[in-house]
């Protein structure tokens, strides 16, 4: 699988010429700049990736005839058979790479038509070349209406992440667009300059050529052109210097999260220039690939690239769902920013927040849920969830907040965030036990885990106290989710949990809520919990006998919460779906795997497709009613300055819309088919509305990895892959067993045009794709991973 990256070589300077519209003079500007750069470089190249006109009128032909010693080339004619964007990007990258030899050269890459003119595939010019991230000069429109066209073109480039180094204009006196636009762009710190317009075209082609030669010679020597050329060359050098110096400067200025700084150095920090699709464009001490030779000149040594694409295997801390630099999300964010800016949400409503709340309530398919509370991030959203659950229980059971000790029921190795309340909801671990304020107000259970080992799916108990101490094997992952066929396991789990919780009830332990990460416990070590055990735990928690009500205390605070099937019992059930929800595991709701309806659900991460921070905490009416009274101090007095930010809500709506289209189309069918087969009844007969058990990672690959001698176990579900490596010194977060695999994939092998950027959790190396990652990309990753685990 070929993946091209951003174009950046130290001694090859590349400038892309965009036009605000068709016929604004891109080729004339290109010709002038080529001549100007000839005063500075021996080799000047002109590249027209796609030409739209007749061959005899092609822009590269114009450059060849009218320019001296300019190496001009066109790669494709628009009328040629259709080429994909990836084909054109690869061809441009390879052509430019062939120029990166010797002591230094420069290349001008001219686009076709305007910024949003179509490419052969139908995408816009701006989207076609975005992965290459070339610095741009925009040729403005000097004609009637050109001011609006030029500004619109600049905004279109800017919103896609381009660096527009300058705007060039013809000094046309009739409309005088250049005067206005110079001032306009100066206010936005964008350099703009104007040149005299070219001479009128002469009917005699030979005389016309002579006049254009004179014009080019004069224009190339103008002060404005020299100023731009020097500014552009300086910016190229500054960009490289910044990339190289950022890691060392970060050591001085940045306090990084989840990093022991005694082990940090500039060599351990990756500088990221940009990101697009599934890939970061990275610079590290390992970024320089081995020198090679070009096809056109086998003896020439190609300059190593400063940047290398790195697959974002951690999905940017599990947030990335629709690809970096997604233009739909960027445009949505820009529209919302322009329409609203920010709206204080107290006693107010705006359309994006209302639409998002209604969408979540509908698509979660949970009749208990009725109210959506907005926060900024997963930790804050879970902090609110803890408050909701404990208050609901305290109101119902009449607990004294000052005198009664209220605990959380959960699973060992849980992680629900870094705020004080969410830390207290998790057992002592590396994340919280050294915090002076941490008290660990909870009771956490061991639980059976799902994994593949030596080609067999297994459900293994975490401790001898858990029912059936012997591991059980299953033919297919789907069989583990077939609860009907696992009645014996359900009875064993139920008996164990009933006995365990009955003992706690006899000791009068007060539980304010059950909090679970459904299916996969993320930060605790990518642990795949037996879904049947979690289902049985929810049932046991709802049957739990909490401290009896105080005499005369009502069960409910308002008449709208009459006791019914939608009310909570025992203790409120909170699902932390920050990581596992919203299609990360292949379904909109992770709760659907357990076939239970929690009372509170928190969602973040994929909510905005990885673009903006936003979290929702959705609660049942009965939980909501616990905060309703005539006393304002009984309200949920929690909020953030940016609660329900309109930009974040708008992007979330668009993100869910796009993922819904993927889910309802054939987009993921190829992945589903990888897990179909005889006996896999959940997938073979599943509809897209209620899909079975599947993963982006093929079952064949998962089985092959499980046989590697260094691998303890592996699992895959939805977009998630987790590989537990053997460690003689013990497993857990402090283990360094996965570091070698992480570093090996980041360095890559000789000749590879991309690497893998990942993070580890102790002895666990994990990876996940975006919801838009294509199968051929995953296949290439599977090959890299398999080869790296030697």
UniProtKB/TrEMBL annotation:
Comp. bias intervals (Polar residues): 282-299
Listed Pfam families: AAA_26, Aminotran_3
Domain of life of the source: Eukaryota
Subcellular localization: Mitochondrion
Location of region: Disordered: 282-301
InterPro entries tied to this protein: Aminotrans_3, Aminotrans_3_PPA_site, P-loop_NTPase, PyrdxlP-dep_Trfase, PyrdxlP-dep_Trfase_major
Gene Ontology MF terms: adenosylmethionine-8-amino-7-oxononanoate transaminase activity; dethiobiotin synthase activity; pyridoxal phosphate binding
CC terms in the record's Gene Ontology section: mitochondrion
Sorted UniProt keywords: Aminotransferase, Transferase
GO biological process, one term: biotin biosynthetic process
Record-given protein name: Uncharacterized protein
């Amino acid at each position: 699988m070929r993946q091209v990256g951003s174009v950046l070589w130290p001694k090859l300077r590349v400038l892309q010429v965009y036009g605000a519209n068709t016929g604004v003079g891109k080729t004339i500007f290109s010709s002038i700049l080529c001549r100007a750069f000839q005063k500075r470089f021996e080799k000047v190249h002109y590249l027209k990736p796609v030409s739209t006109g007749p061959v005899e009128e092609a822009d590269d032909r114009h450059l060849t005839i009218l320019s001296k010693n300019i190496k001009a080339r066109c790669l494709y004619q628009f009328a040629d058979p259709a080429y994909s964007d990836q084909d054109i990007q690869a061809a441009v990258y390879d052509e430019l790479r062939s120029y990166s030899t010797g002591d230094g050269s420069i290349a001008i890459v001219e686009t076709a038509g305007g910024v949003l003119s179509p490419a052969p595939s139908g995408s816009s010019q701006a989207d076609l070349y975005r992965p290459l991230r070339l610095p741009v000069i925009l040729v403005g429109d000097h004609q009637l209406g050109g001011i609006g066209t030029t500004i619109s073109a600049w905004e279109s480039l800017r919103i896609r992440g381009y660096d527009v180094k300058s705007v060039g204009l013809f000094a046309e006196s009739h409309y005088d667009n250049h005067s206005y636009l110079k001032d306009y762009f100066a206010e936005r710190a964008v350099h703009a300059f104007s040149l005299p317009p070219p001479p009128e075209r002469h009917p005699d082609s030979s005389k016309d050529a002579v006049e254009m030669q004179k014009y080019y010679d004069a224009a190339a020597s103008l002060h404005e052109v020299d100023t731009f050329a020097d500014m552009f060359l300086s910016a190229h050098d500054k960009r490289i210097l910044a990339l190289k110096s950022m890691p060392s400067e970060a050591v001085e200025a940045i306090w990084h999260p989840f990093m022991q700084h005694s082990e940090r150095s500039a060599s351990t920090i990756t500088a990221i220039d940009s990101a697009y699709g599934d890939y970061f464009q990275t610079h590290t001490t390992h970024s320089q690939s081995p020198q090679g030779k070009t096809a056109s000149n086998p003896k020439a040594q190609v300059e190593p690239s400063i940047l290398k694409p790195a697959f974002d295997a951690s999905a940017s801390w599990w947030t990335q769902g629709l690809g970096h630099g997604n233009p739909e999300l960027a445009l949505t964010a820009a529209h919302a920013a322009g329409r609203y800016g920010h709206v204080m949400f107290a006693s107010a409503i705006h359309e994006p927040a209302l639409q998002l709340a209604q969408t979540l309530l509908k698509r979660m398919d949970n009749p208990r849920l009725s109210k959506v509370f907005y926060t900024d991030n997963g930790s804050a959203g879970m902090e609110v969830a803890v408050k909701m659950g404990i208050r609901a229980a305290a109101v119902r059971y009449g607990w004294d907040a000052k005198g009664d000790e209220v605990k959380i029921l959960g699973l060992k190795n849980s992680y629900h965030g870094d705020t004080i309340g969410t830390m207290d909801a998790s057992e002592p671990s590396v994340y919280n036990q050294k915090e002076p304020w941490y008290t660990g107000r909870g009771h956490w259970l061991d639980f059976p885990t799902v994994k593949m080992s030596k080609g067999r799916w297994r459900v293994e108990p975490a401790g001898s106290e858990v029912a059936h101490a012997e591991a059980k094997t299953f033919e297919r992952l789907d069989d583990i989710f077939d609860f009907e066929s696992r009645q014996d396991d359900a009875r064993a789990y139920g008996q164990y949990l009933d006995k365990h919780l009955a003992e706690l009830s006899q000791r009068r332990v007060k539980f304010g809520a059950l909090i679970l990460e459904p299916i996969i416990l993320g930060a605790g070590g990518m642990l795949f919990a037996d879904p049947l055990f979690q289902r049985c735990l929810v049932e046991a928690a709802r049957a739990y006998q909490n401290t009896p009500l105080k005499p005369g205390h009502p069960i409910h605070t308002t008449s709208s919460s009459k006791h019914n099937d939608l009310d909570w019992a025992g203790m409120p059930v909170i699902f932390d779906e920050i990581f596992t929800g919203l299609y990360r595991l292949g379904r909109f709701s992770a709760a659907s795997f357990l076939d239970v309806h929690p009372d509170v659900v928190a969602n973040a991460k994929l909510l905005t497709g990885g673009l903006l921070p936003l979290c929702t905490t959705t609660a049942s009416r009965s939980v909501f009613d616990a905060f309703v009274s005539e006393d304002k101090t009984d309200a949920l007095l929690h909020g953030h300055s940016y609660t329900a930010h309109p930009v974040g809500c708008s992007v979330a709506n668009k993100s869910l819309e796009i993922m819904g289209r993927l889910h309802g189309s054939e987009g993921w069918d190829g992945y589903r088919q990888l897990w179909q087969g005889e006996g896999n009844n959940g997938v073979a007969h599943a509809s897209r509305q209620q899909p079975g058990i599947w993963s982006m990672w093929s079952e064949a690959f998962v089985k092959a990895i499980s046989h590697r001698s260094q691998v303890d176990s592996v699992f895959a579900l939805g977009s998630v892959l987790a590989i537990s490596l053997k460690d003689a010194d013990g497993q857990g977060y402090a283990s360094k067993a996965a570091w070698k695999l992480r570093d090996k994939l980041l360095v890559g092998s000789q000749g590879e045009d991309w690497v893998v950027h990942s993070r580890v959790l102790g002895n666990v190396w994990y990876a996940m794709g975006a919801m838009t990652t294509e199968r051929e990309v995953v296949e290439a990753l599977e090959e890299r991973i398999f080869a790296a685990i030697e």
